[in-house]
Amino acid sequence: MWRVTLRGLRARWLRLTLTALAVVVGVAFVAGTLVLTDAIARLVHDQLSTFSRGQVAVRSAAAIDTGVGGDRSRIPAGTLEAILPVPEVAAAEGVVYGPAQLVAPDGEAVDAAIPLGISWGVDDELSVLSLVDGEQPRADGQVAIDASTAAGHGIDIGDTVDLLFFGPAESFEVVGLLDYAGSSSRAFSTVAAFDVPTAQRVLNGPDQYDLIAVQGTDGTDTETLRRSVAAALPPGLEAVTVEELGEESSATLTQSLAFVEVLLLVFAGVGLVVGAFVIHNTFAMLVGQRTRELGLLRAMGAGGRQVWSSVLGEALAVGAVASAAGVALGFGLAGLLATVLDTVGLDVPRGEAQLHARTVVVGMAVGIVVTLIAAAWPARRAARVAPVEAMHDETLTPDPPSLRNRTVFGVIVVLAGLLAVVVGVLDRSVVPVAPLDDPRISVPIGAGVALAGVLVLGPAIIGVLARLLGAPFTRWGGVEGELACRNTERQPRRASATAASLLIGTCLVTFVALLAGSANTSVAAAIDGGLRAEWVLSGPQFSGFSPEVVARVDGLDEVGAASGFRLGFVGLGSTTQALYSVDASRLPDLVDLDVVDGSLEALNGGGVLVHEQEADDFGIRAGDRILMTFPSGVEEIPVAGVFRNNGFTGNFVVNLLLSDAAYDVRFGEELDAFAYAVTAPGVSDTEARAAIEEVLSDFPNVELLTREEFKQDQHDQVNRVLALFYMLLALAVIVAVFGIVNTLLLSVHERRREIGLLRTVGMSRRQVGTMVRRESLLVAVIGAVTGIVTGVIVAWAVVSTLADDGIDRFALRPLLLFGLLVAAGVIGVAAGALPAHRAARADILDAIAEE
User: Fold this and answer.
1) Phi, psi of 734, deg, nearest 5
2) How far is CA 399 from CA 288, 353, 396, 490, in A?
3) Backbone phi, then psi, for 832, in 5-degree steps?
4) Of 493, 423, 426, residue with least CA distance to 460
5) For residue range 601-610, what is the model confidence (pLDDT) as tens digits?
6) Which partner for 297 in 302, 326, 392, 797 could form a disulfide, CB atoms 3.0-4.6 Å apart?
7) Alpha-carbon separation of residue 472 from 463, 475, 479, 793 (angstroms)
8) pLDDT value, residue 473
9) Region 119-146: what's the mean pLDDT?
10) Cβ-count burial of 555 within 10 angstroms (0-12 exposed, 13-18 middle, 19+ buried)?
C-alpha cells in the first residue's frame, strides 16, 4: 500500500501543492515566532543578566510581588561595613543604578527602553563593566558610556554630553567607552557609568546602594558564602546568589516581552486552524474523486485499515514536507516579524537568530499533527468505500449523510455559547469558579464557543445563505450566476468548509477593528469628561522625567496649576495594584474624579482614594482603614474617598491615588510618569505654551501636548496596535485564498464532464470562466457576511465587559465593515481567476469522454 500511496502522491502532486502551502505558511509563522523570541531571550539574558559579578548579592527583600521580581527599596550604605568582617568574604562593593537619559549632540534625548545609569567601583572582579577605550570615570563630572551608543550618535572620548536625572540636565566629560556584561552593543538601552559617589548623587541615592556584590575567599562555595552573609544582615535585607539575581533580572524584561510571543503564536494558530479547513476540504474532495480507485483497491483485497493508512500516509507526507519547508522559511521570517513589530511602534530588541532544536521539533510536530487531524475524517470515509464502488463512474460522489444530527448539534453549541455571553454580560459572577467568574474571561470563551457552533452549523445554513446572498447573481447574473448559486447549494459541506476559512479571518478582523474603535471612542469620552487640564506633559514610556519639570511649570505666571503623577505598586488583598501619586492641592484643578463617597480634602491627610469598582470588589467605603503592602512593609491606610472617573489618563485607568507627600515617605522621591497643567486665568494658550516650552528646553525628554493632541496620541497608539493585528491577520486571509483556489481547482476537475456538457450545449469559454468566478465570489461573500455578523456580536459582548478597564462605549463602524465586505469580494474574484481559466480551457471531447 505504501507504493500505492507514493504513486498517488506523484499523480496528484499539483493538486496537493496549495494544500501544502497552507501548512507552510502556518508553520513558518510558528517557527518564525520561536526564532524571534529565542533571539530576544538570548539577547536579554546576555545584556541584562545582572548588575554585578561576584558570587553573592545583597539587596532589600521585596515586600510586594509586581510580577517582575518585586519592588525593592534601597539599602543603607552602612550595610557594607557589616558584610566586610564576615570571614568568608574576600571583597564587597556597593552598586547604585537608576535612570540616566543621555542627550545626543543634536539636543534630542536618546530614545531607549532602559536608559541605565550605574556606578563603577574600583574592584574589576565585582563589576559588569569593562573598558573598550579611554579610562574609567574617577571623579564628579566624568562619565563612560557604552560604545554602541557613542558610535550611533557620533560621541567620542573628550566630548561633553548632557544627561537627565532627577533635576535639570547635567554636563559630563566622556572619559571612556565601555561594554556591559561582555557586550559593547546595547540593543534596547543606553549605559552611562559614574564613580560611586557621583552615581549616588545623580541617581538620588545618597549614602545608599541598590545592591552589594560580594566575592568569597578562595575555596568558599557560593551557598556557604550566601548563608554566612545572610546571617550578618539586619532584618529586611537578603542575600541571593549572583546566578539567581541574573536569572531574575533577565526574566524581568523577558516577561514584559512575553506577550509578543503569545500574540504571534495566537495568530499562527489562527492561520493553522484556517489551514486545517483547507486540508480537510482537499482530502475530502480527493477521496470523493477517487471512489472508483479506492473501490478497485478494496476489490483486489485491500482492507479498510490499509486504505485508511494510505490516505493518512499521503497526509503525513504532505504535512512533513510542508512543515520542513515552513521551519526553513520561518528562520528567515523572524526578521520580517521584527520589522513588522517595529513598523507599528512596538520596538523589540534585535539579536542573532537562534534556531533551536525546540523550534524544529515544535514546527514539524504542529504541521504534521494539524495535517493528520484535518485528513482523519476523509481517510475514514475512504476506508468505508465498498468494492462495488469500483463499478461507478470515477467522478460520482457518494450521497453525503444527512445534516440533521449536525444541525441539532450546531444549534446546541451556538445557543450554549450565546447563553454564556448573555449571562456573563448581565451577571458578573454567574460562574463562581476562577477564572470563569471574571466576565472578561467567560464572555470571550462563550463567544468562541458560539463561533465554533456557527462553523459546525455551516453546511446546514449554507444553502439558505447561498439563496439569500446569491439572489443578485440569479436575478441579474444570467445563466452563469444561476449555475454558480446551484453549484454552491449542491455541495453544502464543501462550500461551508471553503467559506469557513474566510469566515474566521473576517470575524477576527471585524472584532479587532470594532474593539479598537470602541477603545478610541471610550478614551476620547473619558478624557473629555474627566480631564480639566489643557496641557499634558509626557515623558519616556518606561523611565519618566524629573519632578523639577513640574516644579518649574507650576511656578510660571502663565500656568494656574500643574502636578505630576508618579507610579508605584502596592499590595491590596491578594492582588498587586498600580498606585499613582499627585499633588492633592492641585488635583481639583486638573481632573474631575467625580468623588461619590468621602472627599478630596482627606487625601491631604495621608488617605488613599479608591476607584468605585475596586471599592465594590473589596467592600471598601470612605472612612475605612485598609491594609496596603508598600516596598517598606504593610501599613494601615485610611480611605479618603471613592471616585468614579478613572480613565482621564487615556489608554490606562487609575484605581488608587495617594498624595505626593504620603507617596514620597513610602517610596522615596521618584520620577514623574506624566503631568497635567492648566492655563492661568486671563492668559492665552499661545502665551502658556511659549512659557512651558521655555521650561522644557532644559528637559528634551519631555513632550508638551494639548488635550486634543493628547487624545490623538492615545488614538495613534491604539491604531498602531490595530495595524499590527491587521498585518498578522493577513496570514489567515492568505491561507483562506489558498483554500478557495484549491477547492475550486479540485471542483473544476471533479466537474469536468459537467463543464464539457455545458460547452456542448452552447456555453462559451467566457461563460464557463464567469460561472466559476461568480461561484468563488459567492463563497467569499458568504464567508465574509457570516464572519462580519459574528465579529460584531463578539465585539459587542467583549466591550460590554471592559467598562472597568476604560472601554465602556461600543462603536459600530459601518464604513469599515462595508469596506471589509468589498475586500472579501475582491479576494473572491482574484481567487477564482486561476480555476476559471482552467475551466474555460478544458477540452470538450476529453471532458465528456468515458474513461
Assistant:
1) -60, -45
2) 10, 52, 9, 11
3) -85, -5
4) 493
5) 888 888 999 9
6) 302
7) 15, 5, 12, 26
8) 76
9) 90
10) exposed
Set of cell numbers at residue 431? 460562574
Strands 633-643 and 595-598, sheet pairing: antiparallel
Handedness of CA 268, 274, 278, 284 (dihedral sign): positive
Residues near 267 by Cβ (< 8 Å), separated by ≥ 6? 29, 728, 729, 731, 732
Q: State how far the alpha carbon of 39 is from the alpha carbons of 34, 35, 334, 649, in Å.
A: 8, 6, 9, 34
Sign of CA dihedral 487, 490, 496, 501: negative
pLDDT of residue 66: 53
- 3-state class (DSSP) for residue 352: coil
User: What confidence score (pLDDT) does residue 438 get?
Assistant: 66
In the predicted structure, residue 703 carries a pLDDT above the cut 80: yes
Distance CA 468, CA 484 (A): 13
Nearest Cα to 318, choosing from 280, 360, 361, 270? 280
Backbone angles phi, psi at 63, to 5 degrees: -85, -25
Residue 409 has pLDDT above 90, yes or no: no
Residue 395 pLDDT > 50? no
The three-class DSSP label of residue 15 is helix
The pLDDT score that the predictor gives to residue 716 is: 85
pLDDT(436) > 90: no
Q: What's the CA gap between 753 and 744, in Å, rounded?
A: 15
Helix (H, G, I), strand (E, B) or coil at 588: helix
Beta-carbon contacts of 116 under 8 Å, excluding residues fewer than 6 positions away, are 97, 99, 100, 189, 190, 191, 192
Q: Which amino acid, one-letter code, is at 786?
A: T
> Which DSSP symbol is given to 127?
-
- Could you give the CA distance from residue 575 to residue 140 in angstroms, rounded to a whole number? 43
Q: Which amino acid type is present at position 180?
A: Y
Per-residue pLDDT, 29: 77
* pTM attached to this predicted model: 0.77
Closest CA to 20 of 360, 314, 294, 309: 314
CA 159 to chain centre: 41
Peptide bond into 435 cis (omega under 30): yes
Cα-Cα-Cα-Cα dihedral of 47, 49, 55, 61, to 10°?
A: 140
Nearest to 145 by CA among 136, 45, 290: 136
- The one-character DSSP state at 64 is B
d(CA 206, CA 96): 10
Looking at residue 559, its amino acid is V
Identify whether the C-beta of residue 207 lies closer than 8 Å to the C-beta of residue 158.
Answer: no
Mean pLDDT value of segment 363-392? 74
Which ranges of 163-240 does DSSP label H, i.e. alpha helix?
A: 196-202, 222-231
CA 775 to chain centre: 37
| Alpha-carbon span 289 to 396, nearest angstrom | 7
Single-letter residue type at 234: P
pLDDT band with cut points at 50, 70 and 90 for residue 394: very low
Cα–Cα separations (whole angstroms), residue 7 to 3, 32, 325, 770: 6, 33, 22, 35
Residue 91 has pLDDT above 80, yes or no: yes
Three cell numbers, residue 343: 513598523
Cβ neighbour number for residue 149 with a 10 Å cutoff: 23
CB atoms within 10 A of CB 767: 16
Written as nine digits, the cell of 195 is 564613580
pLDDT value for 15? 59
* Residues of the chain above pLDDT 70, percent: 82
CB proximity list for 785: less than 8 A, separation 6 or greater: 465, 469, 821
Contact call for residues 276 and 247 (beta carbons, < 8 A): no
